[in-house]
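Section 5.1 Outputs to date
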Amino acid sequence: MAIAPFLAAILAPFIFRFAGSYSGWILAIVPAAIFLYVLNFIEPVAANGAVRAGLDWIPSYDLRFSFLLDGLSLTFALTIAGVGTLILIYSGGYLKGHPHQGRFLAYMLAFMGAMLGLVTADNLVSLVLFWELTSVTSFLLIGFDHMRQAARRAAIQALVVTGAGGLALLLGAVILHQVAGNWELSAILGQGEVVRASSAYLPIFLLLVLAAFTKSAQVPFHFWLPNAMEAPTPVSAFLHSATMVQAGVYLLLRTSPILGGTAIWEGVLVVFGAATLIWGSLGALRQTDLKQMLAQTTIASLGLLVLLIGLGSELAINAAIVYFVAHALYKAALFLVVGVIDHETGTRDITLLRGLRGKMPLTFAAAVLAGLSMVGLPLTVGYLAKEEMYAALAGGDFTQIVVLIVLIAGNGLLAGVGLAVAIKPFFGTHVPTPTAPHEGGPSLLAGPVVLSVLGIAAGIKAATVGMFLMAPAATAVLGHYVESHLKLVVDPTSLLLWLSVATWAVGVATFLYLDAIRSLLRRGYNAVGWTFDKGFDSAMFGLIRFAATTTRFFHHGRLELYIVVLFVMMVLAVALPLVLLGGLPAMPAFPALTFYEWGIFIVAITGLITLLLAPSRLVAIVSLGVQGLAVAMLFLLFGAPDLAFTQFMVEILSVVILALVMTRLKLDLRDRREFEDFVRDGTISVAAGAAVMVLLLVVVSGPLDTRLSDFFTQTSVAIAHGHNIVNVILVDYRGLDTLGEISVVMTAGIAVLALLRRRKRGEGARQATAKTKERVQA
């Protein structure tokens, strides 16, 4: 199921080449088939709780490429596939004639596959993988019109913010694995008490919440979402309704059994959710661009969902599930409506659109039906969601009253925006637009009409939807059976209805005074001046300046200092752990040496002293070769003639090559060194040698594990057909490593040769110039 969209994405450009604008209809078969396939699991999931499948991925690390289909993932998967089907059809008509439509459809399918994999992943590593894929594919979609700077900036901003959250998710997943001892979410969900009692609970909570907040655009990470409107409208509709931004909501719902039920969980989610709800609602009222208005309401709706998850009660979780479905249906429909308006009139400015009702009747009908669900009027699934969330706060204590007031205010402001989007462009006297308005084609209308009608149908069939979708989803989140009580009831004596009436009153007042409210908010916005978006630009500018300064500091081009830093860090890396962890070895007793062993020792010491006191470069090179000769003789004495032969060959080649290269530098000269450099380099050299010596003593003081050497001895002839074990290791067992080393040496040799030839050409050019000057002077 999660793989099919990726396979279709590979084929999308080829299908577009032959099918043209009809490729949207053809490729929509893939998500439609996924929708029907997942639909078959409704009854098994409702009866058994979950369906699992998978295959071994990295068995040595207990990693499986596993999938879980329970009530929660089923609801999300149906929404993603269903909405995705209609949006692919819509994309074919919206981008008709675009030369890169095939590439766009491929990105959309990959985006869909990433989101489907995310919501069905049962393995933490798989979850992180698909999470990052949603960030990458959304980057490609937001920046699809890459010729515009605004699109490129929005894509980079979304990638940076959500990518940072992805890193937090990865770290949180690793810590959660360490605490729970399992990578499978289905196994971890039953260990909530263990995780909450762990000292690692707070870092796990903060990391996962950071990931969810960046993905689902919670304050203060909300600023990337409105800028993502630079993407084509089909992307906006899909991203805001069923994918990407809902990933954070899914993560919070999925981890509620593990992390929920604590004071910090409720406090952080409710406070940030409430702040995001109000912030997004007010931000929507400040806009005149229809897409921006809807984008800001998405921020508010995501805050509302996070708030409900934070409350954590059965009614609150049930309300979150219902609201997720309601929001997906009406938000996708309204975005597609706005796309049709923009496509057929040439503008999205709500102040320039009037009287489209008669010229675009089907678009108008879809807008009204979707707007009714956004307002939360009876017969719509939006009404059910609003009733559920108010029922969750019917306890009456002070905290619940405060949260209830926030919900009424936020929902009322959202209702006002919904009324504005559904009414203002269609009523009144028609105002001329850049393009003469006309109704969209079947591919443009199929999505908004079907989705808006589904918003009504789901409200009318509330009991069925509650039984097969909402109750299993809430059961998966809460960890115990939840019986569906969802039904469409309008009771005039119910407090919940009067709370809805208060919400509608706020919405109508907002709609009537929209222009005044917008003017007031814009004056306040201009007075403040600073925004989170500008803060992001400042942070990125500071990061780039810091990177440039760091680069200049560390990459100064002085090879000598590079080597100094390298060896100092090597000494610290070796010595500090041994000193701090008490791992220093005891000095061994000096062994009794034979006369020939003393001879080799004296040869090595003589070569070392000669190297340090060498009067010329040639003597230094030969002295260095003496050290290698002594090492080779040690190998020979201790029964490794093949290794000794290899060492002899390496030393001979090294001396010859160095001598040949150094002939260009006048071998009869000696490099002068300042006393300070001599002391510094000598100290580092002694420290590095001592660190390596101590490390070798630690290694040899432990028990000798001969398994690897025994393996080489037993298999070098039988498998590799070689009696020289060293050569067999280099050529067969470490063949790729040896090839890499040879490639490095070859590349370095070619670079040196090129530099020498360039120097020779430079000297020739200087001599020619000098001769020319002499002739001119003569």
